[in-house]
Amino acid sequence: MKYLAYKSTVVFLAGIAVMTLSAGCSTYKEFASDENIGVERINSESAQIMRANLYSMGTDKVILRGELRRSTTLRGKIPGYLRVELVNKDGNVFKEAEVNYTRKDSKSRVSLFSIPIPTETSLISSVRVIHYDTSLHTADSAKSVWLDVGTGK
Predict the structure, then answer these.
(1) Fold of 29-148
(2) Cβ-contact 123, 91 below 8 angstroms
(3) What is the per-residue pLDDT across 86-101, written as a single tens digit (0 to 9) for each?
(4) Rounded distance between C-alpha atoms, residue 3 and residue 17, angstroms
(5) How far is Cα 93 from Cα 126, in angstroms, rounded to an integer?
């Protein structure tokens, strides 16, 4: 009986050690900067942006990753599209992109999205993530391409 208790304790402690070590080996690290870039989330009637965070991918790359959830209890594809806008220090939007999102699995109410930030973070004061319903969508969002606002490039 003592052997069984000893073995269970060893297995439990080994499991704790593995979980602790694997959590420290993440590829993405929460982005922290002196600029304090905020992420603003604007929901639609059909979906809520549950989280949207900036993550550092090395020394000079930053990625926006997040999670979108249906407002209703229905499952399946979330209608609509996401637009990400970069806001400068003057409060003006200077870049925008439509972002695709994908479900975790076919029965999930949750979809994930991510897009790399194409600009130096020192130029950005905030990132705005907006979900639009399909009925308002006019452009093709097959690719997540950043456009300069005002020039269309």
Answers:
(1) Immunoglobulin-like (2.60.40)
(2) no
(3) 999 888 999 999 888 8
(4) 21
(5) 9
